[in-house]
Specification:
With 70 residues, the protein is mainly alpha-helical. It contains five helices and no strands. The radius of gyration is 11 Å and the shape is globular. The termini are close together.
Length: 70
Amino acid sequence: AEVYAANCASCHGAQGEGKDKSPALAGKDAAFLEKELQNFRSGTRQDPMKMMNMMAKPLSDQLMRAFREK
């Protein structure tokens, strides 16, 4: 939960409800979200604003797994 609050909540909402142009994450499969973070980090998936690519770039695999605890 702390990892999410520190890295995601400002754009995706405190409960993952989504806000503005950032999609909701609540209810999404944790393995799917982890894979999407990996895709953003590697550049396989591109965010038009590049925000997710920049946010995911420094994340370790271990930290990405921690997002499952949200």
